[in-house]
Design brief:
homodimer, mainly alpha, Rossmann fold, 6-phosphogluconate dehydrogenase C-terminal fold, 2 domains, three-stranded mixed sheet, two-stranded parallel ribbon, about 50% helix
Chain lengths: ~280, ~280
């Protein structure tokens, strides 16, 4: 997502000068060649020296060590953000150890993830018309002040259409439902399909037999296992709670199937669709 | 799917003359106007009189009553099929009551469903490069004989790229996994999202906040509730068994999350992806 963001910023009328850093030298060189970066550094600390903006694109559990590494090189006026999918563990560490060092930090989460990653998967239009969550980490003043406006403008430049400002805990509980649950579901579906069914079902060949529905449901099951293990566990409490909510709905559905209650099952599915349509109408207001 | 099939057949070089029937007069008239049908009849029995081919596109539980209705009007040489998503209950009723009446019956299931239905949703390219399952219902001879060739050709004309011949029970157990489980999952996800989260999460607004992942996973949750309640319950045994398989995988994933075992969770996700890649390689052979 870092590479896509660099690509998006390079498309605006007066594009910024972008210095980048990644431990993967090969990726860094590719980003230079593609014009996503103007300068590449193997060390994060070199890349942030004198920067107006710092964007950290890394798995959530890695970010505190990056904060530690760059802290001595960050000037007080620098505007900082990250793109992590889970915020509460970061926020806690931030408040404890970095709140006095980074005084203009608003954490971000644009709803624009994909199952691919790295420079080759970069898409400058990735953020177009997407929503970004903004979570102030520094002391109050960001929510309504001039600084928050700059973060909003930043994401508008990248293409985002709208934003929601909220706290880390609410962010994580919302994300558990709209993103982490779908990923867990999709992974478990892949796990189900890859059982040894061929022994019992001689014509079993899901890749050749799948229709559009299955392809759609499996797309995100190809997401990075290390990144997603990190996300699901960093957001453990909210994800566990959400899996329980989901389990209850699935149980209700299964109960009707087991009891052969066609009409009641149809009513349940209709009720979900009606509530969904209501939510969509509300969501568009 | 019936309307899409009519559209597909109308696109071939020497298109067949198509007589259609549906209890919905309005849909029938639309199909005539769109050129999907040459003649429309409100009664199934009128539509099949003297036909070379009969295709029944109806929810699985409705089909036996259609068989009963049209039986007196079907000639022995007519080739017959249906497009139902569940075959075993149909097959049992067929063997018991219709095997001597319909002697050229091979049930079909093209893997080309969509969440939309009716004449307005018809797409003549719906079957292009899709696989179709073929399930012989009549007495042996169809599997390798001249008649099966005609069913294969029929689906090739409609655009299907390949086919698999198998029995009703295996079809239903495969479909439980590649189609009915994904639908159950998607419905339950919609059920989860439409809970009253707004009371606890003031910024909750999943329709505005969803990324591409959620949109993909929810697409099929808008499928027809009556059709899908019928399918899930007609295939009750296989669907229940499959939901148990899925529940076990989801439990394993949840256990690692609850225990905070990031590395083991990443290994589990990687193992599923590796098996999936193996299956895809095997599936393409």
């Amino acid at each position: 997502m870092g590479a896509s963001l660099a690509g998006a910023l390079k498309k605006i009328p007066a594009p910024p000068f972008i210095r980048g850093s990644t431990p993967n030298l090969h990726e860094g060189e590719k980003a230079l060649k593609k014009g996503l970066l103007d300068e590449y550094f193997p060390e994060n600390r070199q890349a942030v020296e004198g920067a107006d903006w710092i964007v950290i694109a890394a798995p959530p559990s890695v970010i505190p060590s990056i904060w530690e590494e760059i802290a001595p090189a960050v000037s007080p006026n620098t505007l900082m953000t990250d793109l992590a999918s889970v915020k509460l563990p970061l926020y806690r560490q931030f408040r404890e150890r970095f709140a006095r060092t980074f005084i203009n930090y608003v954490s971000s989460h644009p709803m624009a993830g994909r199952e691919l990653h790295g420079v080759d998967a970069a898409r400058p239009d990735l953020f177009r018309d997407r929503l970004t969550f903004l979570i102030p980490f520094s002391d109050p003043g960001h929510e309504t002040g001039r600084d928050m406006e700059r973060f909003v403008s930043f994401w508008k430049s990248a293409g985002c259409g709208t934003h929601t400002i909220l706290d880390a805990m609410e962010h994580d509980r919302i994300l558990a439902r709209i993103s982490h649950l779908p990923h867990a579901i999709s992974f478990a579906l892949l796990g189900t399909l890859t059982q040894n069914y061929r022994e019992r079902l001689p014509h079993w060949n899901w890749p050749a037999q799948r229709g559009g529905a299955l392809a759609d449901l499996l797309r995100i099951s190809w997401s990075s296992p290390t990144l997603w293990a990190d996300i699901l566990i960093q957001n453990k409490d909210a994800v566990t709670e959400t899996l329980e909510d989901y389990g209850r709905e699935l149980d209700e559905l299964r109960k009707h199937i087991e009891n052969g209650e066609t009409e009641r099952l149809a009513q349940l599915l209709s009720a979900w669709q009606e509530k969904g349509q209501d939510d969509i109408r509300y969501g568009q207001l």
